[in-house]
Design goal:
3 domains, about 325 residues, Sulfate adenylyltransferase, alpha/beta, Conserved hypothetical protein from pyrococcus furiosus pfu- 392566-001, ParB domain
Length: about 325
Protein backbone atom coordinates (compact mmCIF):
# COMPACT_ATOMS: atom_id res chain seq x y z
CA UNK A 1 0.00 0.00 0.00
CA UNK A 2 0.98 3.66 -0.40
CA UNK A 3 1.37 5.77 2.73
CA UNK A 4 1.71 9.54 3.24
CA UNK A 5 5.42 10.09 3.87
CA UNK A 6 4.62 12.76 6.48
CA UNK A 7 2.92 10.14 8.66
CA UNK A 8 6.11 8.09 8.96
CA UNK A 9 8.74 8.60 11.68
CA UNK A 10 12.27 7.28 12.13
CA UNK A 11 12.98 4.86 14.96
CA UNK A 12 15.82 4.89 17.47
CA UNK A 13 16.46 1.15 17.11
CA UNK A 14 18.25 1.44 13.78
CA UNK A 15 21.80 0.07 14.18
CA UNK A 16 23.34 2.24 11.45
CA UNK A 17 25.58 4.97 12.90
CA UNK A 18 25.75 7.05 9.70
CA UNK A 19 24.49 7.25 6.14
CA UNK A 20 26.76 8.51 3.37
CA UNK A 21 25.55 11.72 1.69
CA UNK A 22 26.81 10.46 -1.66
CA UNK A 23 25.00 7.16 -1.21
CA UNK A 24 21.80 9.01 -0.27
CA UNK A 25 22.05 11.35 -3.29
CA UNK A 26 22.55 8.39 -5.66
CA UNK A 27 19.56 6.56 -4.18
CA UNK A 28 17.40 9.70 -4.42
CA UNK A 29 18.31 10.06 -8.12
CA UNK A 30 17.38 6.42 -8.70
CA UNK A 31 14.03 6.88 -6.92
CA UNK A 32 13.21 9.95 -9.02
CA UNK A 33 13.72 7.89 -12.15
CA UNK A 34 12.31 4.50 -11.15
CA UNK A 35 10.43 4.99 -7.89
CA UNK A 36 10.85 2.75 -4.82
CA UNK A 37 11.07 -0.84 -6.04
CA UNK A 38 11.16 -2.49 -2.60
CA UNK A 39 8.61 -1.20 -0.03
CA UNK A 40 9.85 -0.14 3.39
CA UNK A 41 8.58 -1.97 6.48
CA UNK A 42 6.76 0.10 9.13
CA UNK A 43 4.85 -0.59 12.35
CA UNK A 44 1.85 1.29 13.78
CA UNK A 45 2.66 3.88 16.43
CA UNK A 46 -0.60 5.48 17.55
CA UNK A 47 -2.00 7.48 14.63
CA UNK A 48 1.38 7.42 12.92
CA UNK A 49 3.89 4.81 11.72
CA UNK A 50 7.49 4.05 12.61
CA UNK A 51 10.14 2.67 10.26
CA UNK A 52 11.29 -0.88 10.95
CA UNK A 53 13.39 -1.52 7.84
CA UNK A 54 14.19 0.93 5.04
CA UNK A 55 15.48 4.13 6.64
CA UNK A 56 17.76 4.89 3.67
CA UNK A 57 14.89 4.49 1.19
CA UNK A 58 12.71 6.72 3.36
CA UNK A 59 15.35 9.49 3.60
CA UNK A 60 16.11 9.23 -0.12
CA UNK A 61 12.39 9.38 -0.98
CA UNK A 62 12.03 12.60 1.06
CA UNK A 63 15.06 14.01 -0.73
CA UNK A 64 13.53 13.00 -4.07
CA UNK A 65 10.33 14.90 -3.16
CA UNK A 66 7.90 11.96 -2.95
CA UNK A 67 4.59 12.54 -1.13
CA UNK A 68 3.68 8.86 -0.75
CA UNK A 69 5.79 5.72 -0.61
CA UNK A 70 5.03 1.98 -0.74
CA UNK A 71 5.06 0.29 2.68
CA UNK A 72 4.42 -3.05 4.36
CA UNK A 73 2.79 -2.71 7.80
CA UNK A 74 3.88 -5.16 10.50
CA UNK A 75 2.85 -5.47 14.16
CA UNK A 76 6.26 -5.81 15.86
CA UNK A 77 7.61 -5.23 19.35
CA UNK A 78 10.91 -3.47 20.12
CA UNK A 79 12.89 -6.71 20.24
CA UNK A 80 11.62 -7.77 16.84
CA UNK A 81 12.42 -4.35 15.37
CA UNK A 82 16.05 -4.65 16.46
CA UNK A 83 16.31 -8.18 15.06
CA UNK A 84 14.75 -7.21 11.72
CA UNK A 85 17.12 -4.23 11.38
CA UNK A 86 20.21 -6.22 12.28
CA UNK A 87 19.44 -9.24 10.11
CA UNK A 88 18.57 -7.11 7.07
CA UNK A 89 21.72 -5.02 7.32
CA UNK A 90 23.97 -8.01 8.00
CA UNK A 91 22.58 -9.74 4.91
CA UNK A 92 23.26 -6.61 2.86
CA UNK A 93 26.70 -6.17 4.46
CA UNK A 94 26.24 -2.42 4.81
CA UNK A 95 26.76 -2.13 8.57
CA UNK A 96 30.21 -1.82 10.11
CA UNK A 97 31.37 -4.43 12.59
CA UNK A 98 31.20 -1.72 15.27
CA UNK A 99 27.54 -0.95 14.47
CA UNK A 100 26.70 -4.66 14.61
CA UNK A 101 28.53 -5.04 17.91
CA UNK A 102 26.82 -2.04 19.50
CA UNK A 103 23.39 -3.29 18.39
CA UNK A 104 24.04 -6.74 19.84
CA UNK A 105 25.21 -5.23 23.15
CA UNK A 106 22.06 -3.11 23.19
CA UNK A 107 19.92 -6.22 22.61
CA UNK A 108 21.63 -8.03 25.49
CA UNK A 109 21.29 -5.05 27.86
CA UNK A 110 17.63 -4.27 27.06
CA UNK A 111 16.43 -7.87 26.86
CA UNK A 112 18.65 -9.93 29.20
CA UNK A 113 16.06 -12.71 29.59
CA UNK A 114 15.94 -13.41 25.85
CA UNK A 115 19.63 -12.64 25.20
CA UNK A 116 21.57 -13.64 28.33
CA UNK A 117 24.76 -14.41 26.35
CA UNK A 118 26.39 -14.57 22.92
CA UNK A 119 25.11 -18.10 22.37
CA UNK A 120 21.49 -16.93 22.70
CA UNK A 121 22.07 -14.11 20.23
CA UNK A 122 23.77 -16.54 17.84
CA UNK A 123 20.81 -18.93 17.90
CA UNK A 124 18.30 -16.12 17.38
CA UNK A 125 20.16 -14.61 14.41
CA UNK A 126 21.58 -17.90 13.02
CA UNK A 127 25.10 -16.44 12.97
CA UNK A 128 28.28 -18.18 14.17
CA UNK A 129 28.95 -17.15 17.81
CA UNK A 130 32.64 -16.53 17.15
CA UNK A 131 31.80 -13.82 14.61
CA UNK A 132 29.30 -12.20 16.99
CA UNK A 133 31.98 -12.14 19.71
CA UNK A 134 34.33 -10.35 17.30
CA UNK A 135 31.68 -7.73 16.48
CA UNK A 136 31.07 -7.16 20.17
CA UNK A 137 34.84 -6.82 20.75
CA UNK A 138 35.04 -3.96 18.21
CA UNK A 139 32.24 -2.17 20.06
CA UNK A 140 33.74 -2.73 23.53
CA UNK A 141 37.52 -2.73 23.02
CA UNK A 142 38.28 -0.22 20.26
CA UNK A 143 38.82 3.44 21.07
CA UNK A 144 36.14 5.79 19.65
CA UNK A 145 38.70 7.22 17.21
CA UNK A 146 39.43 3.79 15.73
CA UNK A 147 35.72 2.89 15.69
CA UNK A 148 35.03 5.89 13.46
CA UNK A 149 37.62 4.62 10.95
CA UNK A 150 35.90 1.26 10.35
CA UNK A 151 34.00 0.79 7.08
CA UNK A 152 31.35 -1.86 6.19
CA UNK A 153 32.21 -4.82 3.92
CA UNK A 154 30.58 -3.07 0.95
CA UNK A 155 33.26 -0.35 1.14
CA UNK A 156 36.16 -2.78 0.74
CA UNK A 157 35.04 -4.69 -2.32
CA UNK A 158 37.60 -5.18 -5.15
CA UNK A 159 40.38 -4.00 -2.84
CA UNK A 160 39.10 -0.41 -2.74
CA UNK A 161 38.92 1.54 0.52
CA UNK A 162 38.73 5.25 1.25
CA UNK A 163 41.82 6.91 2.67
CA UNK A 164 41.70 7.18 6.44
CA UNK A 165 39.57 4.04 6.81
CA UNK A 166 40.22 0.45 7.90
CA UNK A 167 38.46 -2.80 7.06
CA UNK A 168 36.34 -4.89 9.41
CA UNK A 169 39.08 -7.52 9.43
CA UNK A 170 41.66 -4.99 10.61
CA UNK A 171 39.26 -3.68 13.25
CA UNK A 172 38.54 -7.18 14.57
CA UNK A 173 42.25 -8.01 14.92
CA UNK A 174 43.01 -4.72 16.67
CA UNK A 175 40.05 -5.22 19.02
CA UNK A 176 41.01 -8.75 20.00
CA UNK A 177 44.83 -8.61 19.91
CA UNK A 178 45.90 -5.04 20.77
CA UNK A 179 44.66 -3.72 24.11
CA UNK A 180 46.67 -0.50 24.53
CA UNK A 181 44.58 2.47 23.23
CA UNK A 182 47.61 4.41 21.94
CA UNK A 183 48.91 1.39 19.99
CA UNK A 184 45.42 0.84 18.58
CA UNK A 185 45.23 4.40 17.25
CA UNK A 186 48.78 4.46 15.85
CA UNK A 187 48.53 1.16 13.97
CA UNK A 188 45.04 1.97 12.66
CA UNK A 189 46.14 5.38 11.36
CA UNK A 190 49.16 3.96 9.53
CA UNK A 191 47.20 1.06 8.02
CA UNK A 192 44.41 3.44 6.96
CA UNK A 193 46.81 5.04 4.47
CA UNK A 194 46.17 2.01 2.24
CA UNK A 195 49.83 1.31 1.41
CA UNK A 196 49.78 -2.33 2.44
CA UNK A 197 48.30 -5.53 1.07
CA UNK A 198 46.02 -7.70 3.21
CA UNK A 199 48.88 -10.14 3.79
CA UNK A 200 51.20 -7.33 4.90
CA UNK A 201 48.54 -5.91 7.22
CA UNK A 202 48.29 -9.33 8.88
CA UNK A 203 52.04 -9.42 9.56
CA UNK A 204 52.09 -5.87 10.91
CA UNK A 205 49.07 -6.36 13.18
CA UNK A 206 50.42 -9.52 14.75
CA UNK A 207 53.86 -7.93 15.21
CA UNK A 208 52.30 -4.94 16.99
CA UNK A 209 50.31 -7.31 19.21
CA UNK A 210 53.22 -9.64 20.00
CA UNK A 211 56.25 -7.31 20.21
CA UNK A 212 55.09 -5.11 23.07
CA UNK A 213 58.63 -3.93 23.78
CA UNK A 214 58.79 -2.18 20.39
CA UNK A 215 56.93 0.99 19.48
CA UNK A 216 54.45 0.94 16.59
CA UNK A 217 56.73 3.28 14.63
CA UNK A 218 59.69 0.90 15.08
CA UNK A 219 57.66 -2.04 13.78
CA UNK A 220 56.50 -0.13 10.70
CA UNK A 221 60.06 1.07 10.02
CA UNK A 222 61.42 -2.48 10.25
CA UNK A 223 58.68 -3.76 7.99
CA UNK A 224 59.31 -1.08 5.35
CA UNK A 225 62.99 -2.05 5.28
CA UNK A 226 62.22 -5.72 4.63
CA UNK A 227 62.16 -6.99 1.04
CA UNK A 228 58.68 -7.18 -0.44
CA UNK A 229 57.10 -10.62 -0.69
CA UNK A 230 55.00 -12.20 -3.42
CA UNK A 231 52.98 -15.35 -2.71
CA UNK A 232 52.99 -18.06 -5.38
CA UNK A 233 51.08 -21.28 -5.87
CA UNK A 234 52.86 -24.49 -4.96
CA UNK A 235 52.80 -25.53 -8.63
CA UNK A 236 54.92 -22.47 -9.47
CA UNK A 237 57.68 -23.14 -6.96
CA UNK A 238 59.74 -25.56 -9.07
CA UNK A 239 59.37 -23.61 -12.36
CA UNK A 240 60.73 -20.54 -10.53
CA UNK A 241 63.63 -22.49 -9.05
CA UNK A 242 64.38 -23.99 -12.49
CA UNK A 243 64.27 -20.56 -14.14
CA UNK A 244 61.26 -21.47 -16.31
CA UNK A 245 58.84 -19.05 -14.69
CA UNK A 246 60.30 -15.55 -15.01
CA UNK A 247 57.13 -13.46 -15.03
CA UNK A 248 54.06 -13.01 -12.84
CA UNK A 249 50.98 -10.90 -13.52
CA UNK A 250 48.99 -9.37 -10.69
CA UNK A 251 45.89 -7.20 -10.36
CA UNK A 252 47.77 -5.06 -7.81
CA UNK A 253 51.29 -5.00 -6.42
CA UNK A 254 53.11 -3.83 -3.31
CA UNK A 255 54.39 -0.24 -3.79
CA UNK A 256 57.79 -1.46 -2.54
CA UNK A 257 58.19 -3.57 -5.69
CA UNK A 258 60.15 -1.55 -8.23
CA UNK A 259 62.56 -2.35 -11.02
CA UNK A 260 65.90 -3.40 -9.55
CA UNK A 261 64.50 -4.38 -6.14
CA UNK A 262 64.87 -7.82 -4.59
CA UNK A 263 61.63 -9.57 -3.64
CA UNK A 264 60.98 -12.81 -1.78
CA UNK A 265 58.92 -15.54 -3.41
CA UNK A 266 56.98 -17.56 -0.87
CA UNK A 267 54.12 -19.98 -0.45
CA UNK A 268 53.35 -19.08 3.15
CA UNK A 269 56.55 -19.16 5.17
CA UNK A 270 59.47 -19.26 4.74
CA UNK A 271 60.44 -17.72 1.41
CA UNK A 272 61.74 -20.29 -1.08
CA UNK A 273 63.59 -17.90 -3.42
CA UNK A 274 64.90 -14.36 -3.81
CA UNK A 275 64.02 -12.65 -7.09
CA UNK A 276 65.46 -9.55 -8.75
CA UNK A 277 62.86 -7.43 -10.52
CA UNK A 278 64.00 -6.64 -14.07
CA UNK A 279 60.95 -4.83 -15.37
CA UNK A 280 57.42 -3.81 -14.37
CA UNK A 281 54.81 -2.88 -16.94
CA UNK A 282 51.04 -2.51 -17.21
CA UNK A 283 49.42 -4.61 -19.90
CA UNK A 284 45.95 -5.58 -21.07
CA UNK A 285 45.25 -9.29 -20.75
CA UNK A 286 44.16 -9.20 -24.39
CA UNK A 287 47.69 -8.12 -25.38
CA UNK A 288 49.37 -11.14 -23.77
CA UNK A 289 51.44 -13.24 -26.18
CA UNK A 290 52.71 -16.80 -26.27
CA UNK A 291 56.01 -15.40 -24.97
CA UNK A 292 54.22 -13.93 -21.93
CA UNK A 293 52.48 -17.25 -21.28
CA UNK A 294 55.78 -19.12 -21.44
CA UNK A 295 57.40 -16.72 -18.96
CA UNK A 296 54.42 -17.21 -16.63
CA UNK A 297 55.49 -20.81 -16.07
CA UNK A 298 56.02 -22.62 -19.35
CA UNK A 299 52.35 -22.37 -20.42
CA UNK A 300 50.82 -21.92 -23.85
CA UNK A 301 48.61 -18.83 -24.09
CA UNK A 302 45.45 -20.93 -23.88
CA UNK A 303 46.78 -22.77 -20.83
CA UNK A 304 47.64 -19.49 -19.12
CA UNK A 305 44.12 -18.17 -19.77
CA UNK A 306 42.73 -21.18 -17.91
CA UNK A 307 45.18 -20.65 -15.02
CA UNK A 308 44.11 -16.99 -14.80
CA UNK A 309 40.41 -17.89 -14.82
CA UNK A 310 40.96 -20.45 -12.05
CA UNK A 311 42.63 -17.77 -9.93
CA UNK A 312 40.51 -14.72 -10.73
CA UNK A 313 37.19 -16.00 -12.08
CA UNK A 314 37.32 -14.66 -15.62
CA UNK A 315 39.61 -13.57 -18.45
CA UNK A 316 38.76 -9.99 -19.41
CA UNK A 317 40.85 -8.94 -22.46
CA UNK A 318 40.37 -5.26 -21.50
CA UNK A 319 41.58 -5.67 -17.93
CA UNK A 320 44.94 -3.99 -17.26
CA UNK A 321 47.28 -5.93 -14.95
CA UNK A 322 50.74 -5.43 -13.48
CA UNK A 323 53.37 -7.61 -15.18
CA UNK A 324 56.52 -8.24 -13.14
CA UNK A 325 59.47 -9.73 -15.03
CA UNK A 326 62.18 -11.18 -12.78
CA UNK A 327 65.21 -13.41 -12.49
CA UNK A 328 65.91 -15.82 -9.65
CA UNK A 329 68.98 -14.91 -7.61
CA UNK A 330 71.32 -17.84 -7.17
CA UNK A 331 72.01 -18.65 -3.54
Amino acid sequence: MLLDINKIDLNNKNPRSNISDIELDNLADSIRQQGIIEPIVVRPNGARYEIVVGERRYNAAKKAGLDKIPVIIKELNNTQVIEWNLVENIQREDLTDVDKGKTILNMMEEYPEKYPNITAVSKSLSIYPGRISQWVATAKNLTPEVQRMVVPPTATGHGKRSAGKISGYTARVIATKIKDPDRQIKVAKQLSEGKFTHREEQKILFSVAKEQEKSVDEIFKEFEQEPAEIPFRLSHMQPILDGIKTQTSRKSIDPKIREGTIIRANLWQPAFADLIVKKIEKKKLGDFTEKDAKREGGYTLEEFKEVWKNLHGKWDPDEVVNVIIFDKIKR
